[in-house]
Amino acid sequence: MSDFSITINDNGLSAQLTFESNAATPSKEDILKKCRDLKISHGIELDLALEQLESSSEPIIFAKCTKPKYEEDISFKWGVDLKDIYKPNIDANDNANYKDLNQFISLSKYQQIVSINKPIVKESGIDIFGNKINFLPINAFYQVGNNITISEDKLSLIADIDGCLFIKSGVLHVDDVYQIRGDVDFHTGNIDFNGDVIIGGDVKSGFQIISKGNIYVNGTVESSDLRSNEGSIFIKNGVQGKNNCSIKALKGSVFTGYVQNATIECGILFHAQNYVIDSKIESKGTIDLSGGDGIIRGSEVLSKIIKCNTIGSENSSSYSEVTFNNEKDINLKPISSNLIPFLNGIKDRLMLFPSIKPDEMEIIENRIANWKKVIEINLKETFDAPRAIVKKHLFKNINFNFDDLKFSSEKLYNNVEIILENQNFKIVEQ
Under a CB-based contact definition with an 8 Å cutoff, are residues 16 and 61 in contact? Predict the structure, then answer.
């Protein structure tokens, strides 16, 4: 038994036939009967369509309008440059920069993607219902997908969101998420995108990611430059910076497994699962390493609140320094409103990467659950005074600074808080 449907496209400019893959090929008589029911009477080409249906279950265009004829040809004006896609930038000396490959087209909200002129009609066309047509709208030439609006005059396609232009199966889409299934390297080049960026692998040394939204890296960041202008940064494994790595989320937060030999700046919350070694971390709100090993060693940290298990080591030559700021207007509520929806969507997005195995996905899910707990805890806590909360060991020779005030730990402390109170450092042992 045949099971098929007919879809009318673009208000009668074409019609397509779809049938179930396990169903029998519909007869010409059955299709024509449904066409009569739908008042389709013009431009029907069933013989070719039925031949195609025998080898494919994909929708087949079987009826098309007769297009109007114009005094002059339709001309297309693109608001974006298509010809330089996947080509390297060339400098003034004709040297190619293969890190900047122009691998996608960035768009701003309300930006015109493409438009057509409205020519003078020489001969009317006929739609599939047999009606005269004198004008073909722009969607007669380009199939319109997600986040694109057709202008009122039907002459232009407009981006609904900040994002990137993609062409999938001949359909134009604008997406606010840019996904790379593997590593950021010479195959991808640098990334500068005005939406979220999701990386299925690592960010290799020497490459840059700039995003208006959030950045999520499913692997490791090497000696690279990551910058989120309005969102947050998530790195599943960690940062192995080799002393030449800069990560910035000045309006958001940074979450990662570990940090070594890197500089990180964020506006609200920094969280590392395991350790910070030989690095510089700056957060206006909180630096939190209390969820795992929680080690700070050989590093400079600057924040209002520092939470960890251990600062320093038994080796007194391992230098660490804590500098307090006194930010009074830090609002942690944006963490909940901005990060939770993103965290909830990470799993679904990463499922698009076939390289991610079930055990890796389990690690990701555990990380996401832990990040949510960290967010919840930090939202509930309110500290008026700057402080360092060290749950296990504060070793000797760790320097604490606030403006001109200085304090250096002269012995090993266990489970201690260093609190800035009345312009003095107060030591509270638990």
Answer: yes
| Coil vs helix vs strand at 226 | strand
Question: Pairing mode, if any, of strands 280-283 and 295-297?
Answer: unpaired
Backbone angles phi, psi at 24, to 5 degrees: -70, 150
Query: Among candidates 326, 323, 325, 327, which has minimal Cα distance to 406?
Result: 323
Question: What CA–CA distance (Å, rounded) separates 424 from 402?
Answer: 9
- Tokens (6 digits) for 13: 């400019």
- Distance CA(123)–CA(429), nearest Å, equals 90
Q: What does the block give as tokens for 57?
A: 């279950």
Cα angle at 177 between 173 and 180, to 5 degrees? 105
**pLDDT single digits (tens) 164-219:** 887 766 678 888 888 887 899 888 788 888 788 889 889 999 999 999 888 989 89
State pLDDT tens for residues 54-106: 666 677 889 999 989 988 888 888 887 665 444 444 445 444 343 444 456 77
- CA distances 250 to 125, 284, 285, 339, Å, are 57, 9, 11, 14
Of 143, 205, 133, the C-alpha closest to 169 is 143
DSSP assignment of 96-127: EETT----SEEE-TT-EEEEE--PPEEE-EE-
Q: Which residue has the tokens 């320093």?
A: 312
pTM to 2 decimals? 0.71
